[in-house]
């Protein structure tokens, strides 16, 4: 049922008195006659849900858990020789058998993008003379370092920066310029390398 102007005015006046009991009748009448009444509505803010924690460990957590630590009793060269044999077979398959007529540039390009865990490498040049001559199996490759186990069962941490490494497989010798090789193993597959490198010694 529709209300007339008087009923509507009475309803609004009663509503304002209930809503603003401290306001005098004269002020209410002034609002009705001179100003528009705006009834504001405040919506409840939605609570932001907690962000789901990403899967996996942070670098700090990995260090605290010592996930990449090689225990002293496992630091034996002979223990990782089977890994080296697996690596050689992996490279042969990757390079289509390493045939004598294979192009050296093709093999070099494959090796630069290959996984080097299990490869035997030698430091041939270095700004730090104490690194030159270190030979062993790569146990871990990180962005800036190689962890190498030597025949003397010593674990060496060798930085890539300012070092040149050589690796040999089936008579083919490849050189890796560490300063141009500072990537994680997982990042190298999509990286383009220059086949010639330089090092300031």
UniProtKB/TrEMBL annotation:
Protein name: Ribonuclease P protein subunit p29
A molecular-function term among this protein's GO annotations: ribonuclease P RNA binding
GO cellular component: nucleolus; ribonuclease MRP complex; ribonuclease P complex
Alphabetic keyword roster: Nucleus, Phosphoprotein, tRNA processing
Assembly and binders: Component of nuclear RNase P and RNase MRP ribonucleoproteins. RNase P consists of a catalytic RNA moiety and 10 different protein chains; POP1, POP4, POP5, POP7, RPP14, RPP21, RPP25, RPP30, RPP38 and RPP40. Within the RNase P complex, POP1, POP7 and RPP25 form the 'finger' subcomplex, POP5, RPP14, RPP40 and homodimeric RPP30 form the 'palm' subcomplex, and RPP21, POP4 and RPP38 form the 'wrist' subcomplex. All subunits of the RNase P complex interact with the catalytic RNA. Several subunits of RNase P are also part of the RNase MRP complex.
Location relative to the cell: Nucleus, Nucleolus
Keyword Mitochondrion: no
Record family assignment: Belongs to the eukaryotic/archaeal RNase P protein component 1 family.
Entry function: Component of ribonuclease P, a ribonucleoprotein complex that generates mature tRNA molecules by cleaving their 5'-ends.
Biological process annotations from GO: rRNA processing; tRNA 5'-leader removal
Any Pfam family the entry gives: RNase_P-MRP_p29
Domain of life: Eukaryota
């Amino acid at each position: 049922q529709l209300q007339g102007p008087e009923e509507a005015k009475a309803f609004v006046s009663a509503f304002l008195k209930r809503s603003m009991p401290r306001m005098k009748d004269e002020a209410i009448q002034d609002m009705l006659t001179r100003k528009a009444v705006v009834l504001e509505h405040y919506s409840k803010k939605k609570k932001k849900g907690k962000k789901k924690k990403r899967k996996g460990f942070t670098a700090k957590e990995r260090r605290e858990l010592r996930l990449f630590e090689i225990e002293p009793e496992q630091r034996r060269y002979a223990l990782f020789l089977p890994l080296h044999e697996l690596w050689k077979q992996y490279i042969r398959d990757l390079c289509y058998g390493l045939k004598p007529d294979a192009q050296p540039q093709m093999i070099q390009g494959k090796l630069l993008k290959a996984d080097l865990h299990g490869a035997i490498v030698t430091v041939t040049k270095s700004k730090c003379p104490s690194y030159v001559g270190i030979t062993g199996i790569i146990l871990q490759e990180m962005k800036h370092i190689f962890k190498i186990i030597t025949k003397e069962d010593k674990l060496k941490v060798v930085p890539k920066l300012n070092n040149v490494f050589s690796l040999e497989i089936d008579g083919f010798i490849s050189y890796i310029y560490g300063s141009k090789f500072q990537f994680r193993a997982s990042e190298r597959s999509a990286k383009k390398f220059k086949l010639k490198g330089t090092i300031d010694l």
